[in-house]
């Protein structure tokens, strides 16, 4: 028993501090922290057993649980939503608006996803895997979502250049966009952009990001057998994605630190809360799920349904009223997420960056 408890304690401590190690510095380090929930559960079971046996050894699992308690907070939330109007912010990986499903059909058909986004009437909308087709009215996302000027729009391609059709990121805002820019892109699928919005006399910077994906083909994610059959290749791809995300999140964190305005960061992070990616950003910004959400907040709409990889982070000077994962919407392989922030304080004070 002493050997077992000691080993579990030692491994648990390594895991808990592993989220602070960049996967760029230690290969595969970014994959190990996903075991944190498992070891928290093991420590809890050991604590119960040792309490019943009245063994002093219980101090080790107790200390481990205390050290790892912060990971419980990033996994589950118990907040009660606060009603009232505010600044509504939505993030959605739209999976190209299901474009592949519709491109062989009648060009005049408008996918329901555009209608659904319009019906949300959010003040700020950040979309990842955004697809713009200027040649077909029914797929002109900027025009359809923008509603003829209701929203200001900034869209960036992750490819070398924009054409009549392009793939990338977009932010729609009811408030004027006074500045915009791109942080990085890999000229394939991922990238990061920002816009500065003028809101009630103040300026807020909104980042929209789509960090390096897990690089696992979608057909393998549709069933667990596909993952098992290709586990070696899957393991290498996962590690490659973790390392690339570490580089991207370091660049993103540096940009946020130098921002002259308070920031809202939203998007598809392609990483779980027990990660270098998550805790690097969490050291700078608050997470709206943790402070205003409820439950587990899973956002992935595939066989690995227990993943929360989409987030809305915010500057501490902002106050979230509520957060929701909109799981009733299944147009994409991600569920949309939405946070509402208190707006009135913006009238009375200038937000410190």
Automatic annotation (TrEMBL):
GO molecular function per UniProt: hydrolase activity
Residue ranges of the TM segments: 28-50, 57-78
Location of the Endonuclease/exonuclease/phosphatase domain: 90-334
Gene Ontology CC terms: membrane
Protein species of origin: Echinicola vietnamensis (strain DSM 17526 / LMG 23754 / KMM 6221)
PANTHER family the record matches: CALCOFLUOR WHITE HYPERSENSITIVE PROTEIN PRECURSOR, PGAP2-INTERACTING PROTEIN
Keywords of the record: Hydrolase, Membrane, Transmembrane, Transmembrane helix
Taxonomic superkingdom: Bacteria
The protein's name: Metal-dependent hydrolase
Gene Ontology biological-process annotations: GPI anchor biosynthetic process
